Amino acid sequence: xxxxxxxxxxxxxxxxxxxxxxxxxxxxxFRPSPQIRLASWRAVGKSLFASLRFLMETEVHxxxxxxxxxxxxxxxxFLVAMILICSRLLKWREASDVIIQTVANYFPDDFGLNLxxxxxxxxxxxxxWLSLLLLFFTANGIFTPLEVAxxxxxxxxxxxxxxxxxxxxxxxxxxxxxxxxxxVCFTTLTVGAGGLAGSVQSVLLHIVALPVTMLLxxxxxxxxxxxxxxxxxxxxxxxxxxxxxxISEYINLLTWPWLRDKLRADxxxxxxxxxIVFWAFIATLIILAGAEWAARVKVGSPExxxxxx
Length: 309
Fold this sequence. Notes:
Helix content is 71%, strand content 2%. It is mostly helical. It has one domain (75-301). It has a two-stranded parallel ribbon. The chain is globular.
C-alpha cells in the first residue's frame, strides 16, 4: 500500500462523548403548555384545549377550593358593608332595597336560610366606621389565595408580604364595592321599585352587571400579580371570563331546584354552604383558566407570527 493511499493519510479522530442532560425539574402544573400566538382558528382550539388540561391539574383545584371557602366566609360581611353604606352613610334606602331584592332572587325563601331577612335587620344597625372596616377586612380574604395563584401563572419571582397583600386586597374590596354601588345606583335612578318597574329594574341590573364584571376581572388580573402585566394581554380574557361567569350564573339559577332537592336529601344541614362553595369553586376555576390563557396566549395575525419566527 503506497503512502498516498487515502486510507492511511486520513487521521483517526476520537470524538469525546457529549454529556447527557436530564431535566429533573418537576413539571409546573400552572404552565403545562408553551406560549403561543393566535393566528388561526386551529390555534384558538389548541389554546382552549390546553386551558382545559390546566383545569384538570390538582394544584389548580386546591387554589380554587381555597378561594371558594373564603367566598363563603366573605359573602355575608361584604353584603352587610354594602347595605350599611347605602342605608346609613348615603341615606339611600332604595339602593339597599335593590341589593336585598337581588340577594332574595338568587337565594329565595326555600333556600333554607332567610338571608334577605338577616340583611334587612343589618340595614338598621348603627353605622360605625370601625365596624365597616372590620367587615371589609373580613371580606378581602379571597384575594390572598388568588394572588398566589396568579403569581404562579405569571411566573412572578415571589409573593407579596402579608401586609402588602392585605393593602392591595382591601383596595380591591373598596373598588368592588364602589362598582357594585354604581351599578345599583344606576338601576335605582333609572327605574323606580315595585310592580313592572321592579322587573325592569332587575333586567337593567343584569345588563349593567356584565361590563362591571369585566372591569372587576380586569382589575384583579392587573393588580393582584406581583409583577407587571401588559394591559393588552388582559382585555380579551377579562371579557371572555365575564361572559362565562354570566352564563354560569344562569345555569346556577336553572339547576338550583334540582341541586336543592339533592342536597336536602343527602346533606340537609349543609344545603346553603355547599351550594355557595360549589358555585364559587366553578367561578374561581373560570377565573384561573382566564389568567392562565392570558399568560400563555398572544393574539396576532399570521404575518406577525411569520415575522417573529
